[in-house]
Amino acid sequence: MTGALGGDFATVKYRQIPPQRFVRGDCNNDGHIDGLTDAVFLLSYEYFGAGAPRCRAACDVNLSGVTDAIDLLVFSFLGGPAPVPPFPDCGPPGPRDPRLGCALEPDVCR
Question: How much is the pTM?
Fold first, then answer.
């Protein structure tokens, strides 16, 4: 096959990896959504350079990319809105999740 600039390039076949299932709100992948530890895990990652979550989409509880830790705490302790699906059960990512993805399917979803 010839490219636009006249050079040859190879066609590569690849296997598409299916989206990993996850539970929204289980940021630390411990199988529990308790608000406090998930929020602390997220804040430690975002502001203090702690290890990255195995599934970043699980940490995006409101699909905004901001205020996730606060929203987890409000949900857990003040009866605020629940995380958006997939919650409270495992599910596939939604249309806005592929940019976040899951490096590995959380243990609780296997």
Answer: 0.75
The two tokens of residue 61 are 């509880």
How far apart CA 52 and CA 58 sit, in angstroms, is 12
CA angle 43, 31, 69 (to 5 degrees): 20
Q: How many CB atoms lie within 10 A of CB 94?
A: 15
Which backbone phi and psi does 8 adopt, to 5 degrees?
A: -85, 145
Mean pLDDT across the stretch 23-48? 91
Position 25 scores a pLDDT of: 93
Distance separating alpha carbons of residues 46 and 65, to the nearest angstrom: 11
Question: What's the chain's average pLDDT?
Answer: 82
- Beta bridge mates, 22: 91
Give the chain's count of helices (H) and strands (E).
3, 0
Rounded CA gap, 80 and 17, in Å?
Answer: 35
Amino acid (1-letter code) at residue 32:
H
